[in-house]
């Protein structure tokens, strides 16, 4: 058996950290959320009244409030670094003191952090704070379940580009907080030759895939080259072109075993398609380098987080 190819740094997946995300991008998303909540942004007909009419009618600016973010269910928390950005956007005078960090696992009733400041502005910002935290923590929690299903396997779980438009950086960050790894961030950071590229070229043969890999390598010598196959007969000509990664799309376990034997360590391997909590443990035992799964994001659900108030 041939020696397994050592993966280069360019071949390896990555984990996004909060420091990787542009603060100006975060501020822009928050401003978008604030404007749609207060000024009807996005609709042709603008509202007759602007701002938080309920809070303005009931709460004077002199009132100070205390509030606590509370996990209502078990979860992996994500999004806490956004809270100070939101408070600043809404002009909240006061402080937020987190009691945990992104990526930590919380039980029902656990505190995520405490607020102390102007009650009116915090009431206005409350829903936007919760929306971001519930969405991102939902992705992180879903991801944690999938990572746990991998068990002690050395196979790395990857996300995909199936993300909410405009929210990719945050959703991929949430995946990383949940314990999985990030696949390509966009169309610009690696070549990934898929079935529709060949369909557009009116060919799906192994030879066409080989030629596509060679052409991509010639035009992008500094980029990782990954190629998707959906039949074993495509593999021999593809391997002649020496791709960096071979993606096995919708293969059954028996087909994956055969493909791994044929690849024989000459490329990194990735399985994709129909990956679920039910199928993941079996895939984890096959010896793949990577398993990619869009369900980490698109099948996640919002988790229940509350903001408990006190004016004392």
Task: Summarize the structure in short.
This protein is of the alpha/beta class and 312 residues long.
Describe what you observe in this structure.
Helix 1 packs across helix 3 (82-89). The protein has helices at residues 23-39, 53-58, 82-89, 119-150, 168-177, 195-200, 206-219, 235-240, 253-263, 280-284, 295-298, and strands at residues 64-71, 75-76, 94-98, 105-106, 111-118, 156-158, 191-193, 225-229, 245-249, 268-272, 290-292, 305-310. With 312 residues, the protein is an alpha/beta fold. It contains eleven helices and twelve strands. It folds into two domains: 19-138 and 301-310, Aldehyde Oxidoreductase, domain 3 (Alpha-Beta Complex); 148-298, TIM Barrel (Alpha-Beta Barrel), CATH 3.20.20.70. Mean pLDDT is 93; it is low at 1-10. The strands form three sheets. Strands 6-11-10-9-8-7 form a six-stranded parallel β-sheet. A four-stranded antiparallel β-sheet has the order 3-5-1-12, with helices on one face. Strands 2-4 form a two-stranded antiparallel ribbon. The protein is elongated, with a radius of gyration of 24 Å.
Number of helix segments?
11
Apparent shape: elongated
Strand content: 15-25%
Unreliable spans are 1-10
What would you report as the Rg, rounded to the nearest angstrom?
24 Å
The N- to C-terminal Cα distance equals 71 Å
The main sheet orders its strands as 6-11-10-9-8-7
Please report the first level of CATH classification, the CATH class of the largest domain.
Answer: Alpha Beta
**Count of DSSP E strands?**
12
Label the structural class. alpha/beta
CATH architecture of the largest domain: Alpha-Beta Barrel
Give the count of structural domains. Answer: 2
Q: Please, what is the CATH homologous superfamily of the largest domain?
A: Aldolase class I
State the helicity in percent bands. Answer: 25-40%
SSE ordering: HHEEHEEEHEHEHHEHEHEHEHE
CATH fold call of the largest domain: TIM Barrel
Mean pLDDT: 93
Q: Please summarize the sheet with the most strands.
A: 6 strands, parallel
């Amino acid at each position: 058996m041939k020696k397994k190819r050592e993966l280069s740094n360019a071949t390896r997946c990555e984990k996004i950290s909060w420091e990787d995300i542009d603060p100006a991008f975060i501020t822009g998303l928050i401003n978008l959320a604030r404007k749609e909540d207060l000024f009807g942004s996005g609709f042709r007909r603008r509202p007759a009244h602007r701002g938080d009419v309920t809070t303005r009618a009931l709460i004077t600016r002199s009132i100070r409030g205390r509030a606590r973010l509370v996990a209502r269910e078990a979860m992996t928390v994500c999004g806490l670094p956004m809270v100070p950005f939101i408070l600043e956007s809404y002009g909240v005078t006061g402080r937020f003191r987190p009691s945990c960090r992104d990526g930590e696992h919380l039980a029902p009733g656990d505190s995520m952090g405490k607020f102390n400041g102007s009650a009116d502005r915090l009431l206005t910002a409350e829903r936007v704070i919760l929306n971001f935290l519930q969405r991102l923590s939902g992705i992180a929690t879903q991801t944690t379940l999938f990572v746990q299903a991998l068990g002690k396997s050395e196979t790395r779980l990857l996300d995909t580009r199936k993300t909410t438009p405009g929210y990719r950086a945050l959703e991929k960050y949430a995946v990383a907080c949940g314990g999985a790894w990030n696949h390509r961030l966009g169309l610009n950071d690696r070549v990934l030759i898929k079935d529709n590229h060949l369909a557009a070229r009116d060919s799906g043969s192994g030879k066409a895939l080989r030629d596509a890999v060679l052409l991509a390598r010639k035009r992008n010598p500094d980029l990782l080259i990954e190629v998707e196959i959906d039949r074993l007969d495509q593999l021999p000509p593809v391997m002649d072109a020496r791709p960096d990664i071979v993606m096995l799309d919708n293969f059954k376990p028996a087909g994956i075993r055969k493909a791994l034997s044929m690849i024989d360590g000459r490329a990194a391997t990735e399985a994709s398609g129909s990956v679920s909590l039910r199928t993941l443990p079996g895939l984890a035992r096959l010896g793949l380098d990577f398993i990619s799964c869009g369900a980490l994001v698109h099948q996640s659900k919002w988790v229940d987080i509350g903001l408990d108030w006190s004016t004392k």
